[in-house]
Automatic annotation (TrEMBL):
Belongs to the EIF-2B alpha/beta/delta subunits family. MtnA subfamily. GO terms for molecular function: S-methyl-5-thioribose-1-phosphate isomerase activity. This is Methylthioribose-1-phosphate isomerase. Substrate binds at R50, G51, A52, R94, Q199, N250, K251. The active site is at D240 (proton donor). HAMAP family: Salvage_MtnA (MF_01678). The lineage of its organism: Bacteria, Bacillati, Bacillota, Bacilli, Bacillales.
Length: 355
């Protein structure tokens, strides 16, 4: 089987960043050019770049871009002070995905041994490039573990876009499908369209189609029926933050799918890089849930579909309590239950590796 090379959604060019404009997909594959942290903040906030790992990668490069624009002869203390302001500014672009802060903090911490601004600039660029490179390996490992849970011929349901364009490559929850495709293992994907911004119908179907993966689109309210009628064997989703007890925030609609999985007796898997596990957030109740503009609900493709003046509630994410999660699939292995203890173990090992 031939290996498909997907488009890389975040491309660093030293003095600018190119972001695959995820607003325009699937009709156009345009890139937005980013030169300032303000432009990047807007692109993250508007979901031109999206998906927890990808926004972390983009933000890491954003700090590096900013650093490259600073004068090398300026003093290190002032540089660090300004860097922290940029870090806080970028971290405010979206609240739920912890990868954003995680990646920004890695870049800030990377300059600990710098003696000059020049050192700091170089270290920051190296760290941002490392975060992107590591994410590709991480996703591939998650894919290997996820694949071990599936049988040839399985039909698997997913939501949102936990795919290649939401990461450095392969995706988290979609990684197994890329690996299966490369190896000729037949798997079918059922993609929920993911209202209101349609990441499932616009992005997941597009990227899987490009790779030749067998994908079928359904609307979100077709999931329970489809699980029963089409013999779906499992649900696999990505995530934006996993609390210390295993409660997991992901795209709105995910919790409903977990309830359906339990009711219909199929496993519900969460694919997560360790960077998405946040031990500082004790439970799902403490995860900040982004609420977005009402127009995302009242309008479709720029056209109003709801009456003028209607009140709207538009949470972008929901939290699936840990007891509904059959397993969390990380790059270090698969965790089946007992999440509080095992997440702490696996996460602390990672901290040892990168500190
Ligand atoms: O609002 P989005 O499109 O950024 O939401 C993304 C998700 O919910 C994904 O499932 C999650 O970030 C995992 S991406 C590999």
């Amino acid at each position: 089987m031939s290996k498909h090379t997907p488009i890389q959604s975040v491309q660093y060019r030293g003095d600018h960043l190119l972001l695959l404009d995820q607003h325009e997909l699937p009709h156009k594959t345009d890139f937005v050019r980013i030169e300032t942290t303000e432009q990047l903040w807007n692109a993250i906030h508007a979901l031109q770049v999206r998906g927890a790992p990808a926004i972390g990668i983009a933000a890491a490069f954003g700090l590096s871009l900013w650093a490259n624009q600073q004068k090398e002869e300026s003093d290190l203390r002032t540089f660090v002070h300004q860097l922290k302001i940029q870090r806080n500014y970028l971290s405010s672009a979206r609240p739920t995905a912890v990868n954003l802060c995680w990646a920004l903090d890695r870049v800030v911490q990377s300059i600990q041994l710098a003696e000059t601004v020049q050192d700091a600039i170089q270290l920051m660029e190296i760290e941002a490039l490392t975060i992107q490179r590591e994410d590709e390996t991480t996703c591939q490992q998650i894919g290997e573990y996820a694949l071990s849970l599936f049988q040839p011929g399985d039909r698997i349901l997913t939501i949102c876009n936990p795919g290649s364009i939401a990461t450095a490559r392969y995706g988290t929850a979609l990684a197994a499908f890329y690996l299966a495709q490369e190896r000729g293992v037949p798997l079918s994907v059922y993609a929920c369209e993911t209202r209101p911004l349609l990441q499932g119908s616009r992005l997941t179907t597009w990227e899987l189609q490009q790779a030749g993966v067998d994908v079928t689109l359904i609307t979100d309210n077709m999931a329970a029926h489809t699980i029963r009628i089409k013999n779906i064997s499992a649900i696999i989703v990505g995530c934006d933050r996993i609390a210390a007890n295993g409660d997991t925030a992901n795209k709105i609609g995910t919790f409903g799918l977990a309830l359906q999985a339990k009711a219909l007796g199929i496993p519900f898997y969460v694919a997560s890089p360790l960077s998405t596990i946040d031990l500082d957030t004790p439970t799902g109740e403490c995860i900040p849930i982004e609420e977005r503009h009402p127009e995302e609900v009242t309008h479709l493709a720029g056209k109003r579909i709801a009456p003028e003046g209607v009140r709207v509630y538009n949470p972008a994410f929901d939290v699936t309590p840990h007891e509904y999660i059959s397993a969390i699939i990380t790059e270090q292995g698969i965790i089946f239950g007992n999440y509080r203890e095992k997440l702490a173990m696996v996460k602390n090992q990672m901290n040892l590796l990168i500190s």
